[in-house]
């Protein structure tokens, strides 16, 4: 390492009270917006499906991986300890996901050497307040764990290359990983050996846990004693890659763009350091701005249409009024443009940044760290073993379902067919449209940071994050399949690049860039905070909002409460019979999982003894009247999600006085039936 790099590392190791206080505060903010009122919004369709698989895992003790489910088993095993302790409830399953949303923010703080102390704080803050990151962190789906693992791979690899000692976070993550791998298998074995004797099962469980704790202790001692624990980072990287593939099939897109980005960094570094680029830098920058201006003139109609779309989606006739967000976006856009102009003016000064050149992050240093000859072969074999073991472990449901391993490969064939259709009907520009609605600060600031990274061309990690985000954005834009949560994959590096851009503005030695950086950072934070509050706690089921994709409507929870009311009134409680004949019912499977006689048919069946029937309004009106009017009364109708309304039928002797007779053709019946 150079003297400059050593000085930076020494500086990092000194206690920095201000940075620590800011880090703790940001982590607290991230935790609050993710854990507060977790049961507020009803479960999404996909959450209901995941809850169904989790329920089967809890009750049957095995998860049978199905490639048609498209996603891997890790989510269910992450949630398993929480539901074991607290039951099959909404808050425990969402807590299991929210934790990794907070840990993603924490991981960003470990990048301070590579994007600066200020940069790491703002990258973490943007991740903490990103409306999409918060929204999906409060969802029981695979995405946030996937995002955390993606960042874990990056942090682990760069820490290994940079010869960093194994810190407390890496050590704890390694211990947790070992426990995830060892403990469930031991519990399964204990249950097998103990048979039907509860005391024997408990005895075996305790014995296995003691043995495995001792094994984990000695394994950790050996690893920490080897090169100050540095190999932990390689093991964590390999394990994280395995868990990525065991979480979502889109892992190959994330890892592929990472590798392409690394290659492009090497190319761009060579271009940026060349004499030709240095001589032509300013004419080239001026030319690019001129091209942008000419492009704006040529495509002025498209720009006008885009501005019109933006206006209509915030302030247009018939739209929900959002003047604060709209005008803040306009002001922030102008502020970012001004900040870029100021940066370009002062960039001619020699002392434009205090951030060190991370020259150690090279392929040669990676291979040197691994070692040569036999050592290299042993390390590669060890990493391959870790990858294979973890993959087999999860796909085989901890060695209880061998077929899951072979089925893991079938998922990719199915996924390629699924990924050929746009379910949202938003076209190629879907992610830009959604980004403008709720992630504008990140779009603008990541563009600013990307420009600075490419212009300077010396900060390897900033270049990597820039090219990684661009690669992921292009990949998911090209793929026809569109869902809002897929955007989180490229919003992750975008937050990092945005933090880097703020760092480069604020840490210049010139006053104007500092002021511009502070104004932009403050404006972005305020807007993100507002949009996070609005999306997650006010309009979480409003289809006008990005990320609200075919989401369950809040009246659905009223219907669940009504079902509970009638179940208690019947005197049977959770033993009440409920026939769900509607073809659309997810996520009711989750909310009714404690009802042992809740039957999900998806079509009309004969019923005259069930306490309640749930049918689909409009689509099933005529058949419901003909089939159930003799024994049931209409208790109400509630929205499940946009375009899907469910009606509750209650047995006549159980129904309240305000319930209506079906044969009277009440107001809810479609007009066709009234003729």
Indicate the structural class: mainly alpha
Radius of gyration: 28 Å
Helix content: 55-70%
* General form: globular
Overall average pLDDT = 84
Distance between the termini: 85 Å
Query: What is the CATH first-level class name of the domain at 555-674?
Result: Alpha Beta
Count of DSSP helices?
28
Give the percentage of residues in beta strands. Answer: under 5%
Reported by name, the CATH topology of the domain at 555-674 is D-Maltodextrin-Binding Protein, domain 2
Query: In what order do the strands lie side by side in the largest sheet?
Result: 2-1-3-5-4-6
Biggest β-sheet strands, sense, barrel: 6 strands, mixed
Uncertain stretches of 5 or more adjacent residues:
7-11, 668-675
Q: Would you report the number of β strands?
A: 6
Second-tier CATH architecture of the domain at 555-674:
3-Layer(aba) Sandwich
